[in-house]
Specification:
Strand content: 15-25%
Distance between the termini: 55 Å
Number of strands: 19
Length: 587
């Protein structure tokens, strides 16, 4: 019997080793760091292996390993690194396949990393790599320019700053805004585009007046609006907290050649949200200062709107579980390379998928409908119709259908009231809506022009987009062109790619639905700098239901039947977009 002991022992050890090789490392308590290190080593080994690197399956294996690391802890230390390397993986795959879909997948993963971990030390790398793909592989110069500008404005101390600065200096601005512009390093002083001839230059004794300070605040987002009676130059500065002098996060704005209006409260204490206090006062005879104290602050933007002129301040609270760490991908003490491990989904994988969607900001439960214009602002008027009335009627028809499809619906207005454009997006942000749809009707000098079109936030690419944006923003077409460069910075962190996907689905769904019964002209999916979409933290679109100035289309827009067909198409598009983002999360 003893002669069989050694072979049996060897066989037992062999079977045990085989069992270990097929069971996930996590089953034996392997750390997330170990799994990330294995995936990282596989990535770099594959990058150097010219033969293996030509096979899609090899890159997909690496991508799968990084996804498994991310799924184990979607807010953990290695989550942002895994998303970054998923972007790198599909970028490398795209370089070899030449397929645009691979590059777009890389852009998506970089985008997820950027939006979910804006303070991580690899975020600037993700932005730069996304910009390079957009510029060189996808020919999306305007989006690439926005990414480079993000680094210059928001990550000025990062190692990507100088390269982003060079890209901006070398890019032909004619491909972005329609005119060549000299780029300068951003400073604390902002001069609105039209301020080359402000009123203060023509009448030295005339001063602008700060009429009011409005705010909307929640635990994660605040929007403050400064209303003035004319355009002014302004300067702002952020002061970090200082416990020794009991100073919180503080932002002050100096309005030049401005006096304090009678209706402005000199001190306002805000009981809830991240906004703590607002103080306004006359710093000197020519300067009014507004000071905002915040309980917490992660990011902020200041931008001008006009007609009437006002300054908008957007502040975002820090994300929960924010991680700031060393940029070194793997420490020198990383374990030696071992075989890749297979990830086995747990029994509650469906729940995890839902949690993953929520962590990535891809949940889809609440939709805010914005019926354009209202109250003292009728919008377009023609053929006996007022745009504000059609918009509101359609919003209620669409809401009923969205609720039937399982969504929660909120309104910016449900009656005939006036709401400033900047307050509409703020409502969506405060309520944490998952989608924002702004509803409008179009108008044109030519009664022959007709059709439906859908817009997302971006730089205007053609004359008609400028015209529509100017009408909805209540400014001149020339003013829109002047504002394009200023607005670029505002749009940097908007969900532009997601909004474009949503717009495509809504637009195609609307056309298909309407064409079951009527012939309708397709005016396309377009981009323009709409005030009402600026600052939205969720995918947002603006739809133009038709032209009130066209007699045939106006007649249709009077009927609930026609509006119902458009609404059916929009619901179909929304549901299709929901399926898309769920597929993205499963990649």
């Amino acid at each position: 019997m003893r002669k069989f002991f050694i072979p049996n022992l060897i066989m037992a050890l062999f079977l045990a080793g085989l069992l270990v090789s097929v069971i996930p490392a996590s089953a034996f308590g392997a750390s997330i760091k170990d799994d990330f290190t294995i995936a990282w080593k596989q990535f770099h080994a594959l990058s150097k292996n010219q033969k293996k690197a030509q096979y899609r399956s090899e890159w997909e294996k690496v991508g799968k390993n990084f996804r498994n690391v991310f799924k184990r802890s979607t807010r953990g230390q290695y989550a942002p690194k895994s998303l970054y390397y998923l972007g790198r993986t599909y970028e490398e795959l795209g370089n070899r396949s030449g397929i645009k879909k691979d590059f777009r997948t890389a852009v998506d993963y970089y985008g997820r990393m950027i939006s979910n971990f804006p303070s991580h030390q690899w975020t600037d790398d993700s932005i730069f790599r996304r910009a390079e793909i957009r510029l060189r592989k996808l020919n999306e110069k305007d989006l690439a320019y926005s990414d480079y500008l993000t680094i210059v404005h928001r990550y000025a101390k990062s190692d990507m700053y100088s390269m982003a600065r060079k890209r901006l200096d070398s890019m032909d601005r004619k491909g972005v805004t329609g005119k060549k512009t000299t780029h300068k390093k951003p400073s604390g002083t902002i001069i609105p585009a039209k301020s080359d001839s402000p009123k203060s230059d023509t009448k030295s004794t005339s001063k602008a007046k700060l009429l009011s300070v409005r705010y909307t605040s929640s635990e994660s987002y605040t929007r403050v609006v400064l209303d003035l009676d004319e355009e002014v130059r302004y300067r702002y500065q952020i002061l970090n907290p200082n416990q020794s002098v009991n100073r919180p996060h503080r932002l002050y704005i100096d309005l030049e050649n401005t006096v304090l209006g009678n209706g402005v409260h000199k001190a306002t204490h805000v009981a809830d949200g991240i906004l703590k206090d607002i103080r306004s006062g006359q710093r000197d005879p020519r300067t009014t200062r507004v000071v905002l104290d915040f309980n917490s602050m992660q990011d902020y933007k200041i931008f001008p709107l006009e007609n009437p002129f006002r300054l908008v301040v957007d502040v975002q609270a820090p994300e929960e579980g924010k991680v700031v760490e060393n940029k070194s991908p793997v420490h020198s003490s990383a374990p030696k390379e071992s075989k890749p491990q297979k990830y086995t989904p747990p029994a509650n994988s469906k729940k995890m998928a839902g949690d993953l969607l929520e962590q990535l900001g891809l949940t889809f439960k609440t939709i805010m409908l914005d019926a354009g214009h209202g109250g003292k602002d009728p919008g377009a008027s023609a053929n006996g119709l007022k745009e504000k009335d059609i918009n509101l009627r359609f919003a209620k028809i669409l809401a009923a259908k969205l609720k039937k499809a399982g969504f929660s619906v909120l309104y910016t207005r449900s009656t005939d009231v006036f709401i400033p454009l900047e307050e509409r997006t703020a409502m969506a942000n405060i309520k944490k809506a998952d989608m924002f749809i702004s509803i409008h009707c179009n108008a044109h000098r030519s009664a022959k022009i007709n059709g439906i079109e859908t817009y997302t936030l971006n730089l205007a690419r053609n004359r008609n987009a400028v015209r529509v944006a100017a009408r909805e923003n209540a400014v001149s077409a020339k003013r829109i062109s002047d504002l394009q460069v200023i607005l670029t910075d505002l749009m940097l962190n908007s969900k532009m790619k997601e909004s474009k996907d949503l717009a495509n689905n809504i637009h195609s769904g609307s056309l298909q639905s309407i064409r079951k019964k009527w012939s309708v002209h397709d005016q396309g999916v377009r981009e323009a700098p709409f005030y009402v979409l600026m600052g939205a933290k969720m995918p947002s679109v603006l739809i133009e239901l038709g032209y009130l100035t066209n007699r045939t289309e106006a007649k249709r827009l009077k009927t609930d039947s026609y509006l119902s067909y458009i609404a059916d198409g929009i619901v179909k598009g929304v549901l299709e977009y929901k399926k898309q983002i769920e597929r993205y999360a499963s990649l």
